Amino acid sequence: MSRLSYTAVTKLILKDKINTYSYSKHMAERLVELARKDLPVSIVRPGPIFAAMDEPLPGWSETSSSISKLCKLLLSGGYHTILANRGGKLDATPVDNAVN
């Protein structure tokens, strides 16, 4: 029997999930769904998390996630244009809103 490579095992486990974070989030949501008959629960899926709006101060971030980098580059003038929808909305959640 041949040994599966790390990549093959990862693909086998993740299937159509984008990455291990997405996979673990999916698994946690399934567990919550199984337990919901005994618990009052809600599954909330905020958009990508980015820098704070107000707390502890506007723009605060300790991460270098892609959405935070994007916001930093936009606000610092690193990017002069960005492709967006006609309404100009960005599906993202400030970290202080998610925590509160």
UniProtKB/TrEMBL annotation:
One of its GO terms (molecular function) is alcohol-forming long-chain fatty acyl-CoA reductase activity. Its EC number is 1.2.1.84. GO terms for cellular component: peroxisome. The keyword NADP applies. It catalyses: a long-chain fatty acyl-CoA + 2 NADPH + 2 H(+) = a long-chain primary fatty alcohol + 2 NADP(+) + CoA. Pfam families: NAD_binding_4. GO terms for biological process: long-chain fatty-acyl-CoA metabolic process. It is an enzyme of class 1 (oxidoreductase). The keyword Transmembrane helix does not apply. Keywords: Lipid biosynthesis, Lipid metabolism, NADP, Oxidoreductase. Residues 14-100 form the Thioester reductase (TE) domain. Belongs to the fatty acyl-CoA reductase family. Catalyzes the reduction of fatty acyl-CoA to fatty alcohols. This is Fatty acyl-CoA reductase. It comes from Allacma fusca.
